[in-house]
């Protein structure tokens, strides 16, 4: 597609999402001031009951077949292993628009405006959704839950108004799994936020994070996330990479200091992604981000939010990224989604692959759980899925997939043969010399002496096919 035509579609996408679309029945049409609907407290999902566990034989799309929140698996309730969260931006701001076409979804409660009244009504829909789904957490970006303003003061005031309502609607049980500042949509962030070449943008981003952290703290949010969608470059010809990375580290140091200053105890999380929207993003993957934190002395202040779709974009499996985070003591949270093997970008789909979910849950179980982190459904309906009930079906399917993964890990542990296969592979290190190697006390002179003594070796099989057979047997 020609660049000009492509840009036109992007422009349409932006404009269509803001203008009033007429001719679609509204649950609550806004009056001219927009205030009447802001206070509207009717039912947004009248045809959807509270979702219940009905077991694997159920054919009810609005029931859990595998997720039974109070059931104990491996010594913990399923709800405590899984800590599911609804992502506000996908579920309530997702329009179905893509670079080639206009939005396809206009939920009945939407009036086509980006007003504070509309933001408040949407927030009521969010909490009815959360209640009916039976989860305890939600995640938000500042600019998705409340409209931006002409000034920072106006944006903060809009946010405060919506946050006050969210606090009231949360009650005592619901809280954010995490909050974040959206530092990628506004044109001011085109060169980055913390890594922008413009000092004014760096300052603006700091102010936005300061406010987002304050409101996350106010709502009892358990984590705060940094996703650097524009923290990267398009070409190194015009970029001082070292200076930008130094700036990003300074930004994170200031965030840590501010967190301590306001007495916020939530975990700070960095979410790696290799590219899209920039050609190269600095938080490429778990190992790159761990090295960044190590270089700047920030280990211990941050953990990672691993997103499965981002993992595959960086050329890894989600399991690889989770294990890399885990063995570095950095596994903080999971953005539970998946990509498509035939599509080369971030499709943010609900995970439905039982094998993938089992591998994900294996890392979580090895980590002893991920609280105060959890599973955020950073996942959206396909553009072609346009019924309100699809929002529920997608989440029920995603939750059941992860729950089934957890049940499979319990079966793998009970069976024990896969763990035994792995132990057996390394049994030569369970020896006097092996212990010296693992303690870092076997020098090359000693190893050469042993090598000469042992002569040519019989190296055993890796038993990959057997490992795969055992793994398949629990799915
Ligand atoms: Mn994604």
UniProtKB/TrEMBL annotation:
<comment type="similarity">
    <text>Belongs to the xylose isomerase family.</text>
</comment>
<dbReference type="GO" id="GO:0009045">
    <property type="term" value="F:xylose isomerase activity"/>
</dbReference>
<keyword id="KW-0859">Xylose metabolism</keyword>
<dbReference type="InterPro" id="IPR013452">
    <property type="entry name" value="Xylose_isom_bac"/>
</dbReference>
<feature type="signal peptide">
    <location>
        <begin position="1"/>
        <end position="18"/>
    </location>
</feature>
<keyword id="KW-0413">Isomerase</keyword>
<dbReference type="GO" id="GO:0046872">
    <property type="term" value="F:metal ion binding"/>
</dbReference>
<keyword id="KW-0119">Carbohydrate metabolism</keyword>
<protein>
    <recommendedName>
        <fullName>Xylose isomerase</fullName>
        <ecNumber>5.3.1.5</ecNumber>
    </recommendedName>
</protein>
<dbReference type="InterPro" id="IPR036237">
    <property type="entry name" value="Xyl_isomerase-like_sf"/>
</dbReference>
<dbReference type="InterPro" id="IPR001998">
    <property type="entry name" value="Xylose_isomerase"/>
</dbReference>
<dbReference type="GO" id="GO:0042732">
    <property type="term" value="P:D-xylose metabolic process"/>
</dbReference>
<keyword id="KW-0479">Metal-binding</keyword>
<keyword id="KW-0732">Signal</keyword>
